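Hey all, quick one. A colleague (J.T.) asked me to put the zinc ion job into the tracker so the inputs and the structure tokens live in one place instead of scattered across chat threads. No bug as far as I know, just bookkeeping. Sequence used:
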Amino acid sequence: MEFADAHCHYQFAELPYSAVEQARREGVTWAMVNGSAPADWPDVLALFQRDPRNLPAFGLHPWDVPSAPPDWLESLHRFLVSTPEATLGEVGLDQWVKDHHIVAQEKVLRAQLAMAVELGRPVSIHCVKAIEPLLGILRRDALPKRGFLMHSWNGPVELVPELVSRGAYFSFSAHHLQPRKIHLRQQFTSAIPLERILIETDAPALCPAPEFRQHSLPPAPDGSECNHPSNLIINNRELAITRGISPEVAAAETLKNFKRLFLHR
Ligand SMILES: [Zn+2]
């Protein structure tokens, strides 16, 4: 089987590259590596230069809005123009993080969405406790024709049809394997069309419970658990169970969706 990771952060220091190579040997062929701030965009680009299956995404994450340098938007434009394969991400809105400033986040997101439209790039969107303001922007602003990913989808099922009509894809992650998130997991049974589902790890973030791990990694220096890139294989298996299809079909369909969203020109 061949798998495609729709959203991860291989550039983070706590994730050794040997783990990425191990995942490749086990079938995790493609990965969309998301930058989060100007400081890590060169690292994301270096991973793409090291192996073109480490697809790059450049974007300013809502958590990094307060610390962004004044020239971040010009710099982002340069990274995207010089890397035609790049997606725009990780961007979005987050009202869970401490001391968030939603108006500043909205301004940053809208500037990046406009850039994605201008350059014809897909977008990877993070949304935590901010679905209403996000919908306001998605209804008002021009959206990229290529579509956009609702990474680790976290919203109400009622919004799925509208988001699909606006070009959304939805990724299944370890977030959906938590017992208290069963209502989100159930959306992947039939409410979300199969042709709009991707799978992701968010590695090294979103480490699943031990029973959902293909491999484990040592904890980060701050003690937090690290998600191994190969755990995508388990997410694929769990999506297959949720959907009532075989793991082979789940892998083939999500790979096809990944290529349509991120690779098709
Ligand atoms: Zn992420």
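Adding what we noticed when we looked at it: The longest strand covers residues 87-94. Residues 3-263 form a domain with the TIM Barrel fold (CATH 3.20.20.140).
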